[in-house]
């Protein structure tokens, strides 16, 4: 076999070992291996001593890396990062066992291709194994493993294994076809709302003149299932437009729990269990935010904007759009005394904390995301995070306060809003908890204010403003004097 060189060797050329492929020259660089060691063990880095014999637990780590995001395994390195090295006598044997066992279906199923490299560092040799992320689900000796932090987790429950298969599945859950769905299973008024919404931004938008069915097809919410050959409306269609009854039937675990826990941390001060479609859920969750958080208005150029609306619109749309709907984990919106926290199950694309610097824009549900973009509830991928980083320090009057986004199986967003971040328009406007009270305050400040102007200040649609005004008229709290064009409102 000859002597092992200090940098790399390919045993496949001699047909003596299988699955042994030389690392790229970049990875073979000892300094780069040192930089990996310096990071310490984590989600995609594992150290094994393996001085005199191959660590058998390494195959569990290989399985976990295949099932998660891939990673680097360094043999000959202690848990604390100290380089012990692999003994020269055992090195050929360890490489041979590694190659053979990676092709043994009783060890790793299904068998897969890995890359390994012998690297010399400070006079010692270590074996560097690169494990790619796999598109399949793998087991090790009949057991399934996943990676969490620096630990290999053995999956023992049905839910754990199901979630693993969901993460590896081809395509998005949102495209699942339900041939039994009919137009009567959708909320007709929500289509009218969508037409009115797109018309505000584009008077020539094609959806304005489309039928309900044409809108669904245009939004790619009607598909043909490639496996069964059946056609029908998709889960995305039901989630966006479906009645509560149909959602309970085809997606019974879909709910978003909104809780206010400012005083009662064990239970709640206020609660709203939202199980309606995404269009209605957005309005209800934003109403919950407006009810329990302060507002602050801000001049950007000549335009007055509500910082609360800008910041929490991003939080709510992220909670609704970028989640895995096939999982029974209930999405949460929790308002504490000075922070808002959202949590939802997802299929992670990048692990750990996300910032504008390391952001890799990726849509979990591209059909639903594209629909929300059409109605201007979201912008381009990644713009939401950048908006929060831009406006949150202004909202709380502290340049050091930034949103915290953490992506794992559960995506968690923490936004500090502060208890003293109110600028009133008019006086005490931000302290008013209901939209009706805010409309009354705006009318008191300017009796000639229009529904459109109210909508701009409150970041609400004209349709919702008019609905609230009608309720105030019916309750005999306000009345209109004069014409619609030149008249004014009067408080009663």
Task: Describe, in plain words, how this protein is organized in 3D.
By secondary structure, this protein is an alpha+beta fold. It has helices at residues 25-28, 30-39, 58-67, 91-102, 158-168, 188-201, 212-218, 235-241, 244-250, 278-292, 307-321, 366-374, 383-395, 435-445, 451-458, 462-474; strands at residues 45-48, 71-75, 108-109, 115-121, 124-131, 139-140, 143-148, 151-155, 177-178, 222-224, 231-234, 256-260, 270-274, 297-300, 303-306, 331-335, 339-345, 352-354, 404-407, 410-416, 478-481, 488-491. The protein has 4 domains: 12-168, 2-Layer Sandwich (Methyltransferase, Cobalt-precorrin-4 Transmethylase, Domain 2); 173-250, no CATH class; 256-416, Heat Shock Protein 90, CATH 3.30.565; 430-491, Orthogonal Bundle (Arc Repressor Mutant, subunit A), CATH 1.10.10.10. The protein contains 16 helices and 22 strands. The chain has a 7-stranded mixed β-sheet with strand order 13-12-16-17-20-19-18, covered by helices on one side.
